[in-house]
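fold-stage: in
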Amino acid sequence: MIFWIAIGICIWMVLQLILQVILLATNWKNHREIPPENLPQVSVWIALRNEERELPRLLKSLDDLDYPSDKIEFLLADDGSEDQTWSMLDSWAKKEDNKTLVKLTEKDFGRYHPNGKANALAILGKMATGDFYFFTDGDCKVTKNWIRAGVSSIHENTGMLIGVTRVRRGTLWDQMQELDWWNTLGLVKVVTDLGLPTTGLGNNMVMTKEAYESGGGFESLGKSLTEDLEISKAVRKAGYSIRQQVSEDLLVETKAEYSIPSLLDQRKRWVTGAMTLSLGWKILLAIQVFFFPAIIWLIFENLELGIRLWVLKIAMQSIFIGFFAKRAKCKPPFLSLFLYDFYLLVSYCLTILYYFWPSSVQWKARKYP
């Protein structure tokens, strides 16, 4: 009985990957159109906390944006940083008058939401004047055409547009996280293009003013550490659709988590958010996790069959990741694709253990119960 359950899980995983590849090839939705002649007013919202290490990269990319300065406003909130983040922002903001900074103090914490980032974004939302709201993070770097690509990809009833984010490549550790992002966002693309409920992407996301206000904004969200997921639910509940546009212009670059503890804190937040997803999403994610105990058990029972199924899974997974990354004009690290499953095995085990471990989540030097 266990033998057939293990085979069923492994075959399901392989067939799911084959279906994902087929859907990427046959059901790909490209939402990019010619930018309007009269470019709209846009607001860029960024909540920062202790970002001095990565901040120069972000600020330079914002300076390099190809968009009229009189049609863009930058709203940045320093959420109680304990490093040089504020002084760096203050120097940068003096260059042009379309930059507004907010320095949050202890009295501001939790004003609208217990989640520090959601609270900071809710405060920025009271100041925004644009017709489109763009979101990224302090450890990211946006492309020159990020704004133009965003405004030209929102049409019809779209309330939220998400792009794609890649991890800046360096060590093998970085490459594994890069593949993780490609794999996850590829699955999001497949599901989103099917018109099914999906998520937001806090470091690369656009919302229309109308959809944001109709959804009640960040201040209306329930208690959560995944504010991008929760705001996407609010947008859908308000009757708007979510689209994902994958292109080199809507590609944001982020850093890898530097250590195993920081990675586990990130994943614990994500898993907590995933527990609120629909049943369909939970099944898709659960199959990915249960594949590993199933394939290991199968290898002990039937070595040849187990290895063949695992090799087939790695092959289809590599094709899926490679195909998806190519759409954003990127090439994933080829040799690392063959090691990625072993990283996933360890990562899933540690994440599950840490998720159930009775400890608070540490995020941006704050602890959340």
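fold-stage: in (second)
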Amino acid sequence: MSVRDIRVRSEGGIIVETPNGAELRFDPRTPGGSHTVLSHAHADHLPRESGSVICSPLTARLAEHRRPNCCLRRAEHPTIELLPAGHIAGSRAALVRGDRWSLLYTGDICTRSRDYLEGFEAQSADVLIIETTYGRSEYAFPPIEETVRAAHEWLAAEPTRPAILFGYTLGKAQRILRLITGDLDRRVMTTASIEEVNRLIADELDVEFDTELYDHDKGLRDDDILVLPSQMIRTAWVERLIETTNARTAGFSGWALDRGYRFQRGVDRGFVLSDHCGFAELASVVRHVDPDILYTCHGFMDAFARAMTREGFETRSLRANQRTFSDFV
């Protein structure tokens, strides 16, 4: 048996056909095949239809909350081991063991431990399927302490103006609340959507989020901090709120490394805060896994594939609808 007998393609998720005829689906739009693995509960990974999925208990709860019309039944299988992925609460990589082969699907990963998140630790496998969101060499994230210090200095510079901080509802918002605003002697408010995610995570992981629910009638005091979902940045009511309260705005993202980030997002300041691996961390994962074949997916998958090929790894990027190994050549 050769690892080339394991067929991998990107088609509404990552689809793997094993030598014994089983079909594994990773983060697919439609659960099915022999087994389906759900790595985490971000919207771009959640199935759009009901079905049985292998995932962590917290991911199952978050998925139920985020897709209430989609019934996902949590399952397990002895050949599929879930590993902490370090990306967001509940996120898992999957190590699959066959008779004479092994396959590691990372999903979105971060090797840096942060607060209540345990960083991803690579394990050896014959086949590695790795996400490469930041798979170019310029993406090297600063230590979290540097970001926290810079954000605190920015907030302290004008303490009599309210601040509105933007981050993803699931993942980034919790990092902002725990790492950026957690130790500040200021009222911190957020939306019902973030509060509900906070509650699910707090119940499962025994952590606390010290926030109040934002009320339009109460408005913002001069020294308040309001944490909002990223997608609200350019909404009319937020723009009116900024204008009427003279609030400052900041976005938190790995993309804040890009020079044009704050102009593209329409915020006063951008802070680098990523829940993914940077380029060097991704390369380190590949070296630790030491696969016979490496597949890259998402983000800068072609650039990262070329870099790993130069290191001697047999590497292919998973573009949509590629079906056979020869399609990658």
